[in-house]
Model the fold of this input.
Amino acid sequence: MEFKNYDVAFITDEKERLYFLGFHSTAGYVVISRDKTCFSVDGRYFSAAEKALKGKGIEVSLGGDYKTFFKEAEDLGIKRIGIDFTATTVSDLETYKKSCDCEFVDISDELIKIMTVKSNEEINNLQVACRIAEKAWKDTLGFIKEGITERQLANELEYNFKKYGASGTSFDTIVAFGKNAAVPHHETGDAKLRANQCVLMDFGCLYKGYCSDMTRTMFFGDPDKEFLDAYDAVFTAHKKVAETIVSGTCGKDADKTARDVLEQRGYGKYFTHSLGHGIGVHIHEYPTLSPRSEWVIENNMVFSNEPGVYIDGKFGIRIEDSAYLSDGKYKSFMKDDKRLIVISDGQIKKLK
Done:
C-alpha cells in the first residue's frame, strides 16, 4: 500500500480480505498500516484464522465489530482511513462517519493497481484452478448425448470440479445448445440436446479463492459449412491474439486484433462483446481488453482471450482461455489445441 493520503487501509470486502490474507471468511475486517496487517473476526472463524495466518505475520483478534476499530483509531491518533468506495455502500459510509471523527479516503484505484499484477503464488493458484476446469470439462465430454438437458450437463461439469479439488464455481456455469448459444450470457435451462446442434460451455471454478474462466464450443452431430466457417474465424481470431499480445500491448489494441480478423471474415457485426477481462479473486478484474481500454498489459497480468460470433436463431461460438504474460509473452493456462470437437455416433473427435 502507498499510504500517500491516508494513515491506514480498512478492508471489508470479502474478496479483498481473501486477497490480503489468503484466508476466506464471510465476516470480519482487515486493517493495514505501514508496519503491520491485522484481521478482526468473530468466533466462527477466529481459531481457523489464527492457525492459517500464524506464519504470515498477520495479527488476528477476536471481534469483528468495526466500531471497536474506529474507537481505537481515534485513540491512536489516526486521522484518515482509506476504504474502497466501490465496495462500500452509502449507508455504510454514513455509519462509519458517525462512529468516529476520521476522514475517509477512496483507495479503490490503488487496490485495482495492486491486484492487477499477480504474485507467483497467485499465478500458481490460478494455474491450478484452470487445470481443474480443463480436466473437468474433458471428463464431461463423454456425458454429451442426445436428450441431455443444459442443466444436467452443467451439473456433471460442476460435480467434476469438486472431484478434482475445486471449492466451487467462479460464476454460474453457462451451457447453451443450438440457438441458445447465440445469447452470450444465456441462462442455463432445461433445453434438451438434439442432433446437429452446437454445445457452448462457459465455466470456471475456484481454487484457494482464485478463479478460472474457460469457454469451449463443440458440435453434436454433423456441422455444416456455415458453422465450420464461423468456428474457423473465431479460432483464427483467438490464435492471432495469442500470437500478438506482448508486454506493452494496450487493451484496445488486443481487442482490435481479434475484431479485425472477424471483420475480414465477414463476422465483425456478430462479435458483440469485448475481447477479455482480468481474472483473479474476482472473475472480472483488470486489465480490460475492450475497444476503449487504455490498460497496458504487463508481466503477471491475468486476463481472458474470448472472441465470439453469435448469429441469432442459429448458433453461437466462443473460444476462451485464461492467460497471462510471462517474460513479456502471452501464455495460456489451458493446454488443449482448441480445434473443433465433434461428437457423433458416440464418438468424440477433433476436426483437422
Q: What stands out?
A: The two ends are 50 Å apart (CA to CA).
